[in-house]
Each structure stands twice: as C-alpha cells, then as structure tokens.
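1st attempt posting a full record on here, be nice pls
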Amino acid sequence: MKNKKISQIGTSSEGRDFLRKLAGRSEESGAKADEKLGPSSLFNEMKDAYRALFIYGLIKGKRLPINGNFVTIYANIGMFADEYNFYSLLKLLGKEEDIDDIGKSINEYTNWAINNLIKEFGNDAFSIKKFMELMDNK
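the predicted structure (as tokens):
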C-alpha cells in the first residue's frame, strides 16, 4: 500500500447534505446533532454514514465519479478510518484497480450509493424505515 495514492475523502455538496441528514446534522447545527433531525437519525456521526454508504456501493460494485463541486470531508483516510481497513475491503470486495487510488475508489463507491439513495428519497424527504427496507432489498 506504500506506493498507492490516497486521495482526500469527500463527496459532492448534495452528497454532504445527504450525509448530514443521515447523521442527524444540519448546516445550521454543524458538528452537533440537530434538535429535529438528531433524535431520529440512523447514524451518530457523518463518518459512520459515509462508511456505511461506501460499503453499500462496494458490495453493489457500483462507482460514480464526482462531477462538479467536490467537497473534502476528511483530509486523509486516517481521519475516518478508526479500526476500518479500507485497503483490505477494496482488495477483497472491489476491483484490482480500486487500490491504485484508495481515496478515489472510496469516494466513487460512496458517491454512487449517495446518488442512488437520493433518487429513492429525494434530497429533502427521508424515511429511516424506507432506508432500512431499501438496504435489505438491494
């Protein structure tokens, strides 16, 4: 992995907003849970939502480049990796070329998942029950 490129971790502006909702955050609340969104959110933090959607995209084998406005969420993979070994996940479940740029691969798998879920829910409407059904059925 020493010679592999690791891009910054991020998404589109729309994707960032969707991740905020999944983690019970709003633009106004920043890093703290929003009073309305927080109590019913699926995830405690944005990085948890990001990781879950990365895994969803990876398992489905779908990637989508981020066109337009790229927003850096984590300057490096270590900021959201914790005990997760993304290199191993990509090597085992992804394509051989996924490890050439680990950050780009993570971003594109996650971007596909975000866009797929936004199509299902719209960017504003969100239902945890529908989300869980979608994750179970796909």
